[in-house]
Amino acid sequence: MGDESQKNHKIRVAQYLRMSTDHQQFSIDNQALYLKKYAEDHNMVIVETYDDEGKSGVSASGRKNFNRLIEDVVTGRVKIEAVLVYDVSRFGRWQDNDEAGHYSYLLKYHGVRIIYCAENLPDESPEIQMLTLPALRYAAGAFSRNLSVKVFAGHVNLVKRGYYQGGIPGYGLRRKLIDNNNRPKMILCPGERK
Known about the structure:
Layout: H1 2-8, E1 11-19, H2 28-41, E2 44-53, H3 64-75, E3 82-85, H4 88-91, H5 97-109, E4 113-116, H6 126-160, E5 175-178, E6 184-188
Parallel strand pairs: 1-2, 1-3, 3-4
Antiparallel strand pairs: 5-6
């Protein structure tokens, strides 16, 4: 009888979903489907969803629902045993590993563990997680830093080639359409497209 009641007892979890605008393969819907299946396979019930769509993961600033998750756990407003997250990068691409560790520790201190469902970290081996998680967090942050450097280099390259980078050209400047051989074709009027 004891085994049967334990089988029927579902673990109460929340899910955290995040998508920055440039990662469509990690859309909110795709993450939610993956986490729903994970919860079903592991005798869990998702009782709360926190999502930040179109938000960068480099800090907690501006991530309204991430901050609400932390506040709900710390104040006891939500009663859960774990937070399901697709992977480490969805929890955040922190530029400082200590900041990532801070939020993880806040949850852990209040009895809530983070489960990175797509990372395949062994739950029964905290030693492996202690070694692996900082490396995964660093890699997630490094991706963001490297992308920033590449985007900046791309803008610099276009400026060096004479292309204007930004919104509407400054007063007195006009846009010029050029062909594939860099020969001018015509001056574009405001609002006119190539």
